[in-house]
Amino acid sequence: MNILDRTPPKADHRLPYGNLPMQFGDLWLPASASAAHRSPLLVFLHGGWWKSAYDLGYASFLCAAMKAQGVAVWSLEYRRVGDDGGGWPGTMQDVAAGMDHVVKLAEAFPLDTTRAIAAGHSAGGQLAFWLAGRHHIPHSNVLAEPVPNLALKGVVALAGAVDLRLTIDLGGFFSFSNGGPAVRALLGGSPQDVPERYAAADPGALLPLGVPQILVQGSEDDQIPPALPLRWQQNAQRQGDRVEVKIVPGADHFDVIDPESRAWPVSRDAMLSLLRV
Question: What is the mean pLDDT of the chain?
């Protein structure tokens, strides 16, 4: 059964990080977590082309599977296109606030903030990689604040739209039709229309990220061109970043996030490897 059609498991806690309805996250805690044994942390961003029609529910399967591996997961919800205040700049502001809330979470729950990574699926890949690069945002831009208060050990993209300009350009070339319109809806225009927004929200404009990156991609993905992670790797490595790309033969857009798929061990091991660095 498709992951979108299955009943998702429930998190241990649903907690707000702000005052608005979409400013909350699901926290998953391993049974082994305690004051004496703080758990490494995965901050996870769901996808759905940044649209309000898609929420964090389907990511719960990944969260539960990582919890079983001894990893705490903070799965963020955020305002999306179609929500009041979603898109530019609210979507990125929510994700930044949710990430920065980890410091407060660690005061109440046994989280090891020295071992934290971010990962995202599809559009969530852009948000995860943006979190790693937001310290490069020009100070005059509305997204420059707040200053990040948590250092990441690395970032993982699962079929991630990690570079907004490449998502537009490669989407048109390879006939992947969703990306271009979705990116323009997120930022309110094309790179030519609103260049200052792309300069602040596009991870490709924030290189080098300065942390290890792993991009997991299915060869049969019909939403993200398999060429995208390879182009990202070239661009990021040229600027000094450490990047791995793992192409999973036969895997589609959702296999890389589905613990019941044959692609799952690749995604799981990518996240675990950065938490063990």
Answer: 94
Task: Dihedral sign for Cα 247, 253, 256, 262, please.
Answer: negative
Is residue 195 a contact partner of residue 123, using CB atoms and an 8 Å limit? no
Q: 102: which 2 tokens?
A: 């980890």
pLDDT tens string 67-114: 999 999 999 999 999 999 999 999 999 999 999 999 999 999 999 999
* CATH assignment of the domain containing 26: 3.40.50.1820
**Measured between alpha carbons, how far is 259 from 276 in angstroms, rounded to an integer?**
20
Residue 28 has pLDDT above 70, yes or no: yes
Residues sharing a CB contact under 8 Å with residue 126, sequence separation 6 or more, in sequence order: 120, 160, 161, 162, 163, 164, 167, 201, 202, 203
Give the count of domains, the chain: 1
| Percentage above 90 pLDDT, the chain | 86
Residue carrying the six token digits 């061990």: 265
Q: Which domain range does residue 197 map to?
A: 3-275
Rounded (10°) CA dihedral 163, 62, 43, 157: -20
CB neighbours of residue 175 within 10 Å = 8
Are the beta carbons of 58 and 3 closer than 8 angstroms?
Answer: yes
Specify the pTM. 0.96
CB atoms within 10 A of CB 218: 24
Please, which residues have CB within 8 angstroms of residue 137's CB and are 6 or more apart in sequence? 143, 144, 199, 200, 206
